From TrEMBL:
Biological process terms in GO annotation: thiamine diphosphate biosynthetic process; thiamine metabolic process
CDD domains the record matches: TPK
Listed GO MF terms: ATP binding; kinase activity; thiamine binding; thiamine diphosphokinase activity
Domain spans labelled Thiamin pyrophosphokinase thiamin-binding: 141-211
Species in which this protein is naturally found: Bifidobacterium cebidarum
Enzyme kind, highest EC tier: transferase
SUPFAM superfamilies: Thiamin pyrophosphokinase, catalytic domain (SSF63999), Thiamin pyrophosphokinase, substrate-binding domain (SSF63862)
EC number: 2.7.6.2
Record's protein name: Thiamine diphosphokinase
Entries under SMART domains matching the protein: TPK_B1_binding (SM00983)
Superkingdom of the organism of origin: Bacteria
Pfam families: TPK_B1_binding, TPK_catalytic
Keywords: ATP-binding, Kinase, Nucleotide-binding, Transferase
Length: 246
């Protein structure tokens, strides 16, 4: 089953222009705050612009631009990227391709990696692109990678457990073929594995959430889920945080 793609442009590092082939012509495009600077530079018109605009260098969107704009308060609970995901989710998207979500502030990078797990835990897929690497997550399911030529330097792929425990982890087709393994969020056994030349591979987890990193030149994997997932990732929150100290 195909799903509508949401392309999100954040305010982080870009490491060069995105591959146009990864942005379908019918993608639902969201510019998150300073990501609007990048969509302008790329000549991409977003469907929605969202943020408190603390990282935007150019002019704020104006009514004359004809863009749907969601202005968030600076003192909020949800980061701009989560708000962008919620907007894409409400538009019916269940696959999210994100640029400008890695690099820069490490806390933002960690936050965005956690958001990939949030998507996975609700049956959706998210991909963070940056510095030649893609970061994604899978929950109770599998990622299948097509066979592809591997350069002499290798194509590294790493697997980490974000959940406390991930059970029945399998990595057939990789250099180190883990079978029915158990990973925890303090075990790094899955780091620096490798794809094999012209050999299909997959990464699966029976129960738990994995973070997976792989080279950007490798085609996006086919995602299969072990069961149906219910619920959403929450409603868009445009209110000032109720947690502020008085």
């Amino acid at each position: 089953m195909t799903t509508k793609v949401c392309a999100i442009f954040g305010a982080g590092e870009y490491y060069g222009d995105p591959d146009p082939a990864l942005i379908p012509s019918d993608a639902y495009v969201v510019a998150a705050d300073g990501g609007l600077d990048h969509t302008r530079a790329l000549g991409i018109t977003p469907n929605v612009v969202v943020g408190d605009f603390d990282s935007l260098e150019g002019a704020r969107p104006a009514a004359a631009d004809g863009l749907r704009t969601v202005v968030l308060p600076p003192l909020k609970d949800d980061p701009d990227m989560l708000s962008a995901l919620k907007i894409g989710w409400a538009a019916g998207c269940r696959e999210f391709r994100i640029w400008g979500g890695l690099g820069g502030r490490v806390d933002h990078t960690l936050s965005n990696i956690q958001l990939m797990a949030l998507l996975a835990q609700h049956g959706a897929s998210g991909y963070l692109f940056g510095d030649g690497t893609v970061v994604t997550a899978i929950c109770d399911g599998s990622l299948s990678f097509a066979a592809h030529p591997v350069p002499e330097a290798g194509h590294m792929v790493s697997v980490f457990s974000l959940s406390d425990v991930s059970l029945d982890v399998n990595e057939p087709g990789l250099k180190y073929e883990l079978e029915h393994g158990t990973l925890t969020n303090t075990v790094v056994q899955g780091v620096s594995n490798e794809f094999r030349d012209n050999k299909p591979a997959s990464i699966s987890v029976g129960s738990g959430t994995l973070i997976v990193t792989f080279p950007a030149e490798v085609a996006l994997p086919n995602v299969r889920l072990a069961h149906e997932f219910n619920g959403g990732i929450g409603e868009l929150d445009t209110e000032v945080s109720a947690l502020l100290a008085h």
